[in-house]
Amino acid sequence: MTSATAGGTGSGPVSPRSPRRKSVTGTRKAVVVLFLLPAVMLLGALVVYPIGYSLIRSFVSDTGGGFAGIDNYRELFTDDGIRTAFRNNVIWIVLAPTLATALGLIFAVLTERVSWGTAFKLVVFMPMAISMLAAGIIFRLVYDQDPDRGVANAVWVGVHDTFAESSAFPKAHPGRDSPLRAAGGGAFVTKDPVRVGEPVVLPLVGVAPDLMPDGAKAAKAASADPGKVTGTTWQDFTRGKGVGTLGGVDSAELGYPGMRIEAVRDGTVVERTTAAADGTFTLSDKADGALLRLPEANFREAYNGVDWLGPGLVTPAVIVSYIWMWAGFAMVLIAAGLASVPRELMEAARVDGANEWQVFRRITVPLLAPVLAVVLVTLMINVLKIFDLVYIIAPGSSQDDANVLALQLYRSAFSDGRPGVASAISVLLLLLVIPVMLFNIRRLRREARR
To answer: Which family, according to the similarity comment (predicted)?
Structure first.
């Protein structure tokens, strides 16, 4: 049986010619260009023009009156401030993204195993809602040198004083015509040996009345004891001109509670004691003929914590504040990636005898590698332009030590009046970002081909 076609008879069907497909918009290329033109103009105004202008300006002198050649770029490698900024940027790139990503990974993995994981994630992510300016102000107070204001030093001083108690009399010293003399190393010793049955007086001055220990009581003259060495150590000062007796215990004066007293003979300590609340103390007959020494531990300056914002620690301190802000960002992204990890692989590994560390290292981390790369690259680009935290947290005395390229760009352009050098720094920052962006593009293309 033959079938007929539109042109006559034939042995088989002939497919009709397919019509040309229209574009999705059903418009010509000119209309498409018109629609894209506003976006292209915006991109050119906000991205292309600033990059081009900065590149041109980097070859112009600071006065703008002539061609400077590569002098501005030569300045990048000879100026000490710029070299310090470059070194600090390297420290930032190595430490900040790595630590923030690692901390986010730990939080994401651990919060999967607790019922209150969502609440914990909310608390950790909350700093992301705070601006860099506000975070800088917060950590400027956290790192305050005064333990009564700075949280970091309050904790540090509390831990330190738990193991090494600070002295309550750091400013105390012998007054005029005192029976004590300096013994070296901050200690004081009696000028003459002491004898049993003869009360000893150890007057000191120099402690402000409002800084005396809370347990201090009115000083009391020690009574004589035939078989012991007794004495009093006290604040030999009474407010008011001509009031009180120099070298004598007055009722308006306070004792030195807890003052350490040592009996020393031939360089060896034969006995120790501490003064009572009224300043009195007692030693056995072992102290007979010895010198009494007030050791330097009585007068050690109170521990005031760590200078977090000093030249040596300012960069790590600012990095900690950055991690506080961005660890939550890393945690949320990693937790989203962790939700897509097949649980069958983990269960199979546990059935085969793998412990939790092996499951984490050999299964969880490799499967999360694409997400970890995204977080790491994002944070690396972010820290290259870090400015706010360093500018706000680092005090003026150590801002040079905490300097980074973005801050140096601002200072060169607005404080030092060197726009040519500032433009060269901006070009350097662009060149530093390009390799990271190329790596990210290549990684995205590899994932798209899978």
So the answer is: Belongs to the binding-protein-dependent transport system permease family.
